[in-house]
Design goal:
The protein has 2 domains: about 5-80 and about 190-200, Glutaredoxin (3-Layer(aba) Sandwich); about 90-185, Up-down Bundle (Glutathione S-transferase Yfyf (Class Pi), Chain A, domain 2). It has 8 helices and 4 strands; from the N terminus they run βαβαββαααααα. The protein has helices at about 15-25, 40-45, 65-75, 90-115, 130-140, 150-165, 175-185, 185-200, and strands at about 5, 25-30, 55-60, 60-65. Strands 2-1-3-4 form a 4-stranded mixed beta sheet, with helices on one face. Helix 1 (about 15-25) packs antiparallel against helix 6 (about 150-165). The chain is globular, with a radius of gyration of 17 Å.
């Protein structure tokens, strides 16, 4: 049975298409019109009570949250390649930066852009400058998060940085921008980008 991804190209599901292209597993994209609120319909809520995308269903297993989907696909379909094995010392680093992206980069950038008022010690994403320093430190051993080896962590981390840059939510240093360009030059990203673009065109989303 093929993997089914409940998808909209203007949601985080767009990055999951990249994950699926990286692992090379067969999949089906099932369009959910979030502009019409279809993610709140009973069939989607039955899979994800949050009423959000992405939702991935793999032979009856339901996975939500993009970082969790990345970990799942890496372990199930690319174990030892895009996902370090459990006895690999790099696996800790792999988890660290995969979850840093949605836990720190996304909310930290939103907080900065929205001028949120919060007590730093009470917020999981902490200080904005510290976050930027952490991003730099993650890439010190480059060219990827695990050194020479590209992994699913780069799809999540690099994809998040690309989105933050695209929406002007984060100003990236040249070295970090170079990293983003490096990861999105991969053939799997380009295939995913073409699929997302085709769906946007099919549904008239690129019309002004």
């Amino acid at each position: 049975m093929a993997i089914v991804l409940y998808h909209h190209p203007f949601s985080r599901a767009a990055n999951v298409v990249w994950m699926l292209e990286e692992v090379g597993a067969p999949y089906e994209l099932r369009f959910v019109d979030i502009m019409k609120g279809e993610q709140k319909k009973p069939d989607i809520l039955a899979l994800n009570r949050m009423g959000k995308l992405p939702v991935l269903v793999d032979d009856g297993t339901v996975v939500t949250e993009s970082a969790a989907i990345a970990m799942y696909l890496g372990d199930r379909y690319s174990y030892g390649k895009l996902a370090p094995k459990v006895d690999d010392p790099l696996r800790g680093t792999y988890f660290r930066w995969t979850f840093f992206a949605p836990s720190v980069i996304e909310p930290g950038s939103a907080a900065k852009g929205g001028k949120w008022e919060f007590r730093e010690g009470a917020a999981g994403w902490g200080n904005h400058e510290a976050m930027l320093g952490a991003i730099d430190s993650a890439l010190e051993k480059g060219p990827f998060l695990l050194g020479e080896n590209f992994s699913m962590a780069d799809v999540v981390f690099g994809g998040t940085l690309r989105a933050m840059r695209l929406f002007n939510m984060l100003e990236l240093k040249p070295s970090v921008s170079d990293y983003v360009e490096r990861v999105i030059s991969r053939p799997a990203f380009k295939r995913a980008d073409e699929k997302n673009a085709a769906i946007r065109a099919e549904h008239g989303m690129d019309k002004k």
